[in-house]
Each structure stands twice: as C-alpha cells, then as structure tokens.
Amino acid sequence: MCLGVPGAVLDIDPDERLPMGTVDFGGLRKEVCLAYVPDVQVGDYVIVHVGFAIALVDEAEAHRTLEVLRAMGEGALATELGVDVAELAR
Fold first, then answer.
1. Residues 38, 87: Cα–Cα separation, whole Å
2. pTM for the whole thing?
3. Residue ranges per domain, the chain?
4. Could you give the C-alpha distances from 11 to 32, 40, 44, 83, in angstroms and in order?
C-alpha cells in the first residue's frame, strides 16, 4: 500500500542541491526532501510519500488524515514511514 502521510515542517535546510527539512508525524520526526513544495515554510503541513513532501495541506486536514491512518493500525503508518512500530510509540 502506498500512502501519503501528513506532517508538520519543523525546520528547513536549503541545501544547494535539494532542500531538506525535518517533518513531525505526530511525535515521530523524519528528514524529508522538500523540492516538490518550493513555497513551504516552517509550520506548514505537507503530505509525504516515500521521503518526499509532495503537497501542502491545511492543519485540520492533516490531523484528520493522521487519525484515519492510526485507526488503520500502527503497522500501516509505520510501514509507510519506513520505521519500526516501536518508534511510533515513543
């Protein structure tokens, strides 16, 4: 299954090649590529797919989507984020 997971942009590191940033997925933080969302700002919410932020999304929609993903089970969310289920429990 391939999903886009919403998260909040915590910081942006504008690398010379690819802009990268830290995105928070309800407590789990991952480094993601921000090249596809050039107008992104710290505090914005993005949809992340396989390590790339692919779209901006509003905060309310991001929270609703995370709730749905969590209702599917932590395994689905962990698989999509490429982490162990134990990391989501932290």
1. 29
2. 0.81
3. 5-85
4. 10, 10, 10, 21
